[in-house]
Specification:
With about 110 residues, the chain is α+β, with helices and mostly antiparallel strands. It contains 1 helix and 8 strands, in the order H-E-E-E-E-E-E-E-E. The protein has a single domain, classed as Lipocalin (Beta Barrel), CATH 2.40.128. It has an 8-stranded antiparallel β-barrel with strand order 1-2-3-4-5-6-7-8. The longest helix is centred in the N-terminal third of the chain and has 16 residues.
Length: about 110
């Protein structure tokens, strides 16, 4: 009976972890480690991400990118950014603008 219960709990845990979906081909330009004066972001091709505002707890989990938003969901809460400018190159630096703030690719 214990084994069956542990199996069911394990199955539920694994199915809950399967919330990640790879980013769409159009969104691969957002992959990488980004920082601004206020935030540090990591966006992975597998749909996993990390968002941390300075001196706050991080949000670690699913990243969803739509045509005008980047959404972080997971442990620590949620955070949405409006995409003001997709990643672009300026004087040799790769950057993007989210919520009016410049983010630089590392």
């Amino acid at each position: 009976m214990k084994r069956v219960l542990l199996f069911v709990i394990g199955l539920l845990f694994l199915s809950g972890c399967d919330l990640q979906q790879p980013l769409n081909d159009d969104d691969i330009v957002f992959i990488g480690s980004w920082s601004s004066d206020e935030f540090y972001l990591e966006i992975g091709a597998n749909g996993y991400g990390f968002c941390q505002k300075r001196n706050r707890y991080p949000i670690e989990g699913r990243v969803n990118i739509t045509r005008n938003k980047i959404k972080f969901r997971g442990e620590g809460g949620k955070k949405d950014f409006d995409i003001d400018a997709d990643p672009f190159i300026d004087q040799g630096d790769v950057m993007m603008i989210l919520d009016g703030e410049y983010f630089y690719l590392h």
